[in-house]
Amino acid sequence: KLATYDGTSWSTETIDEDGDVGTYTSLVVDAAGGLHISYHDQGEGHLRYAHRAGGQWTFSVVDDSVDVGLYTSLALDAAGRPHISYYDLPNGDLKYAVWTGTAWEAVTVDSGGDAGYYTSLALDSQGWPHISYTDWTNRALKYALWNGTDWEVSTVDDTASVGLYSSLALDSADRPHISYYDFTHGALKYAHRPEDTWSLLTVENQESDVGYYTSLVLDAADRPHISHYDLSHGDLRYSRWTGSAWQSETVDSEGNVGVYSSIALDAAGAVHISYYDLGSRNLHYARGR
Q: I want to staple 203 with a disulfide (CB 3.0 to 4.6 A). Which of 152, 155, 188, 280 is the partner?
């Protein structure tokens, strides 16, 4: 389904109801206002893609292997072509697919043993893909970069049981920033690579189990903003880097809310977050002023 706000009210529509479809969605709006969505077809076990241009939806199967397409993350390059990272469940692989203009091409990026949970994809200024993801076997946060010739795969953090719910963004100099969950310490963590080595920081633990379902965005000054779920209190939380310190606050504590959060900033820098209410089973939306 798709929910759209027109400045006055919300409208919803069903995009695809052909079977058991729509898990692990990722949405991008292009420069012309066209919509692009990657998602998992749970019934057939395929990775699917939907595109709306001129008011018409078109659909395609990106990868028709069995039980692929979990944890999808979608990005568009300068030519408007979609790129998708996703998980191959039977083989335990991180995969990546790109639309060439005539067909989908899919490759395996990392087959190092149950790698590819919680993928997050971003394209740099050259259109090359960067992917953060969880290595479930080793409970580590990993990072893959296409350098134009080969995939470079590295471990970002393996200091504990870490790397779940990763979210990746690239700054104005194409440097990676990643938010993720530290299961061992029940903490929200943040990694960035200003030079050749990774800097790892604990954003928040507060003697509470925080950092589930992270979503990261960078503002115009390349400062990170992160939405996440506080499991201990059932709250939606928001953390941001001010330039000198991390500041965290509760956005919504009405019931058990905040899972599956997704954050974005508008042109004025205002924060927008979508998230799920576990109690009422409703989709919620919060806007910062």
A: 188
